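user: can you give me the structure for this one chain? tokens are fine.
assistant: on it. calling the predictor now.
[tool input]
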Amino acid sequence: MMILAIDTTTPSGSVALLRDETLLGEINLENASTHSARLFPAVDFLLRAHGLDIGAVDAFAVAAGPGSFTGIRIGVSAVKALAFASAKPVMPVSSLEALAAKLEGPEVRLAGPILDAKKGEIYAALFEIRRGR
């Protein structure tokens, strides 16, 4: 299954392309322009770099928060438009859960990802990571 994943919940967003559980490529959106200006060029570049077009995508994943309200709206709207146009499913993903899932280590582990919510506040969660069960 080919999945296009988009995260615009933080100022440094990303676009990733996965085939099943294999990461084919990822673009980190680290620059001064807005997500709305850089998102679709990044998607286009990533797909073309792998000789694909949007029709090759079987499903879309999108970071659904917590995070920047405007960033979430941009990412979710973009993914919903692509999914609607191609009649493909959308999978929302928790930003904090995705951060926790990136950890590697012992079979059972606690993970406490934190994102800056601005104005002296944070988004945080605590997850128990279990591998191999």
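assistant: here you go. The two ends are 23 Å apart (CA to CA). The beta strands are 2-7, 13-19, 22-29, 59-63, 90-93, 108-111, 114-118, 121-124, 127-130.
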